[in-house]
Every structure is written in C-alpha cells, then in structure tokens.
Amino acid sequence: MKKRYASIWFRHLLTDWLTLRQPELKQVPFVLVAPERNRMIITATNELAKKQGISKGMAAADAKAIITSLKVIDDLPGKAEKLLVALGEWCIRYTPFISIDLPDGLILDISGCAHLWGGEYEYLKEIVRRLKDKGYDVRAAIADTPGAAWAIARFGKDKPIIDPGGQVEALLKLPPAALRLEPLMPERLHRLGFYQIRHLIGIRRSALRRRFGEGFLLRLGQALGNADEPLQFLQPATVYAERLPCLEPIRTAEGIAIAIQTLLEKLCKRLQSEGKGLRTAILKCYRIDGETVGADIGTNRASHSVSHLCKLFELKINTIEPALGIELFTLEAPNVEDVSPGQEVLWSSGGCGLDNADLAELLDRLAGRIGAKNINRYLPHESYWPERSFRTARSLTEKPVISWRSGRPRPSLLLKKPERIEVTALLPDNPPMLFIYKGEKHVIKKADDAERIEPEWWRRKRPHRDYYVVEDDQGRRYWLFRSGHYWDEDSQWYIHGFFS
C-alpha cells in the first residue's frame, strides 16, 4: 500500500486555546511572553496581534510600542505538548497512527483511511472543518512524505493535496524553510541566494554536505522521499484491532450492540484463521463531542467465539454513555494466545471438566457480573500447615504439581487465620466438651479422634497442632485444634474451619 501522510498545522495553538477558555480575548490583540536574557520575548500571538505587525520572537516592550492596548500574558511551559496530545487523541477517529509534531502540529499516517470518507479531499475537508468548529485556526495538507505534507501545510499556496509521486515538483517553488531546517539555516541560505528549493536540487550531495551538513541532506531527503522518517505514534499500533466508522452517530444500546458484533465478527475471523484467541478486548467509542468512552472484557482462556464474546460485552453496554452520539468504534485485542485446534470441537461438545468450553464461558459471564477477583480456583501446595497447603491457580487449565491429601476430612470453609476460642476439655488429650466462639457457647456432642499436624522441619520452632472434628448440639460441625501440648504454658485452642 502506498504511504500517505497528512500534516495539520495549528497556526495559533496556544492563543486559540486561551480564547476558547476566555471568550473576551477574541476581540483583543494579545501575546504570550517568556523571559529570555533579561527580556520578555513573545512566544505566541493571536491573529489580531499578528495582523498589526506583532510576531514571535519580538521583545514585548517593542510590541507594546506598536500596539499600546496589547494584552501580555505569561507563557504556559509544556502546555503546547499537552494540547497536541489531546488533539491527537481526538484525531484517532480518523486514523490510529498519529504523531506529535512540536511545537504546533500533528502528522497523521492516513494510508488506507481516506476512502472511508469518500476520498482524500473529503477526508481532509472533514478534519479541517471539525477542528475549526472546535475553535482552532488550522491548515492541512496531504502528500507521500511527512516532510512534504509539513511543507505544503505551512508554505503551500496552491492545492493542499499532492498527487502520489508529485512531492518533488510541489516542493521546488517553496522556500528552504519548508524543509524543517535548523533556525538559522534558512537565513544563511537566503544570503547565499537560495530562495527556493529548486535552486538546491541540482547541486551535488557532496557539496551540500560540505557546505550545510548532514542534517540538511537528511531533511531534504525526507521531504523528497529519498530518506526514511520514522514517526513515534501516540498509541503503538495493536496488531489485532478493528475500526468501524459510523455514517450517522449511534445513540442507542441496540446500535452499540450491533457495532460490537460487527467488530467481533471481523476480529474473530482473523484470529481464527491464525489459530489464535483473545484473552482481553478493549472497546473504545469516540463521541462527536470529543469524549471517548468504552469497556473492556477478559476471558479465562483464549477465545474467538463471537457469540461468547458478545455476551461478555452485553454486560457492559449499559455503562457506555453515547451522549450526542458515537461516530467511531474501535476494538483492540492487546493480549492474544494460541488456541488448540481441538477447541472447535469443544464449542459444541457436551463434555464436562475444566476443559469444557461451557464452563469457561460461564465463568466469564460470572466474572462480568461479580468481578474476576471474586472467582478463584485452588491447587494443592507442598505444606503440612492447612492454611499453606493450597494456592490460587493462575488459570483455568493450570495443572496441579501434587495431589490433594485425602486421608482425613477437611472443612469446606477454612479461615484465613485461626481464631482464638475458650475451651473446656478433659485432660490430657480428650476433645473439647464445649467452646466459646464470638460470645456464643457451643456444647460438643460428637468428636473424632485427634489428628496431629507437625510443621515443616524449617518451622520447628512452632508447636504442633492437634486437630478435632467436632459437632455441637445444633448439628453444626467445626474444625478445632490445640496448639502444642496441654501442659505447655502457651498452649491455646483455636477454631480453623467450618464443615457444611
């Protein structure tokens, strides 16, 4: 695919932004200033001040002499970059590949995007119109290279869209400053009689390098398309992603659901063809008021089932506020994994167990309702101590390294930490006759023999435990233990679990 780039130039970025925040400045000539060598130097002007001869780089005192009513405002360090980032994120509705072009522009990689708006002319017209409606004075251009688009946007006087392969001819009549040179270089070139780029084209590269340096040659080559220009995009491209522009703004839950299904069908078709499934998916909805809303889902195992993933997103649709309407949907899958070929059989199988797809889908839906952190699976762990004899599984399909111990009964609910109780028991090793837990007395009617559990050898400083399964007069069963021998001074009784 032939690469195409658009350059957007915000002619008065900071002053336009201030005017939007303070509408009274619209009819007032004003400038932004910053200290430089013990003088206040103008860093930005609004259009009214510019028309009256005020320009960037002038001393504020000289500007005040020209316009006595000139309003002077302190500059906002770092604000231009923040504004460009915000405007770049807004422009993602037109292309996912946007680069910040400090101090006052954006570079868009629009390859394969313009046809969605009916062609490059309508595409560029739409962007410029929307930005002007937001209150920014902008110029824009499209060309085969970022450098050529930048030059046409700022210095071009004819058509803003350069035909493919036409950047050389379009650049010839522009001044050398259109090559994005170092600040003093254009003035130097003018003194030498190079008033247009055409005057530099016929000179040998060795002579240009010797006279103007490697940086000059690089900028010239980038503009003409003879040298690569890597761009750093605002959001790194997600390998698995789909976009859905809307002809009319979407305002209903039904419309959002249809958009989600359309995106999932396209994304899952690609995933399935590559033998992959997604573990996470991120939906972003770009509203016409400039705000972005969305939702995300996660799965217990890689999936490319459209119906299953749609059900997960259905749980989130009511959290998406369309406001005046959504004009663009994007769906990204930042985390994908290989899917075993046997998965297709499992989708329709009636088998049971952890490999059953229905179980994974059920867990995904439950996680969407109550939160994934509230669903856990446990595997056995190498430890005699009950509270350390298990661990949380990392996934639904993780296999245990050891088997569960099944020699003696274990409670269905184990306390995270044993809790102290008061016990009455016959000595020396009889089970309790009664115990008091949280102020309630429990009279023991039945009890099993003691089960002694010793700590691991590296924990020998801790006393052993003698566990009892007991049943009170209400038929409730508990797991109690005595820490250490009954004659030890620090011997205590604890409750550690409950049987169903």
TrEMBL record:
Annotated keywords: DNA damage
What SUPFAM superfamilies does its record include? DNA/RNA polymerases
Residue ranges of every copy of the UmuC domain listed in the record: 1-73
**The organism's place on the tree of life at top rank:** Bacteria
Q: Which InterPro entries match?
A: DNA/RNA_pol_sf, Rev_trsase/Diguanyl_cyclase, SulA_CellDiv_inhibitor, UmuC
Entries under PROSITE patterns matching the protein: UMUC (PS50173)
Per the similarity annotation, which family is this?
A: Belongs to the DNA polymerase type-Y family.
Would you tell me the protein name for this molecule?
A: Protein ImuB
Species of provenance = Mucilaginibacter pocheonensis
